[in-house]
Specification:
Blueprint (H helix, E strand, L loop, with lengths): L1 H4 L7 E2 L2 H11 L5 E2 L25 E9 L5 H8 L6 E9 L1 H14 L3 E6 L7 H4 L5 E4 L6 H5 L3 H9 L2 E5 L2 H7 L6 E4 L4 H13 L1 H17 L3 H10 L3
Parallel strand pairs: 1-2, 3-4, 3-6, 4-5, 6-7, 7-8
Helix pairs in contact: 3-4, 3-9, 7-10, 9-10
């Protein structure tokens, strides 16, 4: 279907440069317009910038998605927490089966005894960003396979930026595309490498001022580069 119809299209947009490169390579089409899956600033109206927020006594890590399940990097997060000899909180928001929740809770008790794992229900779209500000670090633990997961940019990452959370992202092609533009907002780790993930988190535990710098950099990046208020101009300019 792509081979037959993409060359005929007058309008093609993609959610990452990496997907655009792949379509050009595979089908010889002209370079598509990149429209990142970013969010409007109004979703963060009234939020306090990171430097003005009270510090949490225990570092609070946050992951969200429609579904909490296997193949989303959650297991490696638990394994990383087990390598850190300090109490931490891992907050997971999304729909989860009773069986998978039990697996995660059992894994945490066995491998990350100092960590607390807290599950949360989904919230309304309008409150997704505002809900994040009680956390410290946003986790975007995507896998390198299948190829779509490697090439795209998770909307988690852009949500965390808008909320002012420091970013921890697995080193997929798509997420690297963004983090290389804003390296002070967080760090990349090789997907599946719990040791590298733990090492990065420990730096923030030991140097909270560096964590706060990353949070502020994320907050600034969302307002200067990665929000729909700016991104929509690319879309509108296509029709002028």
């Amino acid at each position: 279907i792509e081979k037959e119809f993409l060359p005929l299209c007058d309008y093609v947009t993609v959610p990452s440069e990496q997907i655009g490169h792949r379509l050009v390579k595979d089908y010889g089409i002209r370079r598509p317009i990149v429209l990142y899956n970013v969010f409007p600033l109004r979703l963060a109206e009234g939020l306090t910038p990171p430097r003005q927020r009270p510090k949490n006594p225990v570092l609070r890590l946050y992951w969200f998605g429609q579904m909490i399940g296997a193949g989303r990097g959650i297991e490696e997060i638990i394994a990383a927490l087990g390598l850190i000899n300090k109490p931490l909180e891992l907050h997971l928001r999304g729909n989860v089966s009773a069986n998978y929740r039990s697996q995660i809770e059992t894994m945490a008790k066995e491998k990350a005894k100092l960590a607390s794992v807290i599950f949360h229900q989904l919230v309304n779209y309008e409150n997704v960003i505002k809900d994040m500000t009680s956390f410290d670090i946003g986790l975007s633990s995507e896998m390198n396979q299948p190829i779509n997961h490697d090439l795209t940019v998770s909307n988690k990452l852009f949500s965390y930026l808008l909320a002012g959370l420091a970013i921890v992202a697995s080193d997929t092609s798509g997420q690297r595309e963004i983090m290389e533009k804003i390296p002070s907002a967080g760090f990349l780790y090789p997907a599946g490498d719990a040791g590298a993930l733990a090492k990065g988190l420990e730096r923030w535990i030991n140097y909270p001022e560096v964590l706060q710098d990353a949070q502020q950099a994320a907050w600034d990046a969302a307002r200067e580069k990665f929000c729909w208020d700016l991104e929509k101009e690319k879309f509108l300019n296509l029709f002028k």
